[in-house]
Specification:
Dihydrodipicolinate Reductase, domain 2, Rossmann fold, six-stranded parallel beta sheet, binds nicotinamide-adenine-dinucleotide, 14 helices
Amino acid sequence: MTRTGMKRREFLRAAGAGALLAAAWADDLAAADEPQPPAPGKDDDLNIAFVGIGTQGRVLLASNCLKMADQRLRIRAICDIWGVRREAGVRLVRKYGHEARGYEDYREMLAGEKDLDAVIIATPDWTHAEIAVACLKAGKHVYCEKEMSNTLEGARSMVRAARQTGKLLQIGHQRRSNPRYLTALEYVRTHRALGRITNAYGQWNRFRGLRVPAPAAAAMPNAATIARHGYPGVEHLLNWRWYKRYSGGPIADLGSHQVDVFNWFLRAAPRAISAMSWRDPAQPSEWYTSVNAMYEWATTQAGREQIVQGFYQLLNTSSHGGYFETLIGDEGSMNLREFDGRMGLRREENVVVPDFERELDQWCVKNIKGFTTRLDGTISVKVPSGEESGRIYPLPFDPRNDRPVHWAHLVNFFSAVRNPKNVKLNCPADEGYHSAVSVLRVNDCLAAGGGRLEIKPEEYVVS
Ligand SMILES: NC(=O)c1ccc[n+]([C@@H]2O[C@H](COP(=O)([O-])OP(=O)(O)OC[C@H]3O[C@@H](n4cnc5c(N)ncnc54)[C@H](O)[C@@H]3O)[C@@H](O)[C@H]2O)c1
């Protein structure tokens, strides 16, 4: 019997009704099994709490925080209004040596856990502003999942609370810390590998919107408890993304990650949007099923103003092409992807070959099995790829950095909490707010018929 199998079985036996959640937790538990971090308890450990231990809370906890031995985290509290989940979370972290307590209400948690340094929030979007503001005002640093809020008013209150309290607020746009994206950014910014960037294209296509089925009877949340927290029934709690009251819709849920990448790479936020959407009656969501949004950024590149046009597509009817972001310039283009090594740089066939490209070519020859040089002496070699021409390279990446995708963003947060003078957050509140404006205004644009909607610079400023 493997050690992993043994641990999982022990956990399930102890879990009682929570065992019904076994399937959902199984992968995370396996992921959390190795390596076993040392038992917490040193004076300089960071005391942290989780609010919301659903799908994403579990990922942040089990696949990330429980394995970060070098971050010296002490998990003190697990808060969730859903009792079975909360108890399963508490059991899991106790098994790893953390003396955590469970709370149904974040207010009781803040009252009962005076020593907390930081809170990680992974509840539905409509609760972020209230919970994050309360945590900041209680003197805690906050890592809050995207979308920052389902309303701009809520997002602004978070920015203000972070400013007023001087506490850190990291928004969970984790690509901003992803080593793959940071490598890509270096090629774009330092080497100007794309030349003059003129276009951005992104998509998130998936087959059917995420719809969560009801759990077995014994694992159901308590109806009176969830009603007290604003959910009239379990359907609303499970499928909050499908309701306008709780979410900013698919463009906020998925598109925010990707539009945030464009804002970050372009060092600008959109100045105009137009959009079209479509609602599939077969998918009973209050939101649209698919949306196509056009964006316009006024950027400064090499000291000159440059308009960048963007197209963003989101489908809930087909997973065609999956999800990625592409930046296109007059010398090259680049594909960005969160999970795998399909990130690539394409250089136009006829552009001058600068030093960085020669070095990249040599790195690829040395490090990538079967890679045939794209440069032949001083002569460039065309890579046939349908009608696309040019020289295509994978970007250099150190496999030792290939951690779960939220890892580096959490580490950036914990490092900033420990050392705020020297470590800057990769997605502080103001940046998160720019992304919130960029996606939530798409909904306003659609409500007004989809025509060009100008976003004034002052809309991005929180006073
Ligand atoms: N960064 C990413 O890649 C990523 C991926 C998925 C989800 N998310 C974000 O994480 C958040 C959670 O999404 P999810 O998919 O885990 O949702 P989920 O429905 O699976 O989990 C939400 C959990 O929060 C609990 N909850 C609801 N209201 C609460 C309250 N007032 N107090 C305490 N607990 C409460 C629910 O009981 C549930 O366990 C969302 O903001 C989502 O956008 C981010």
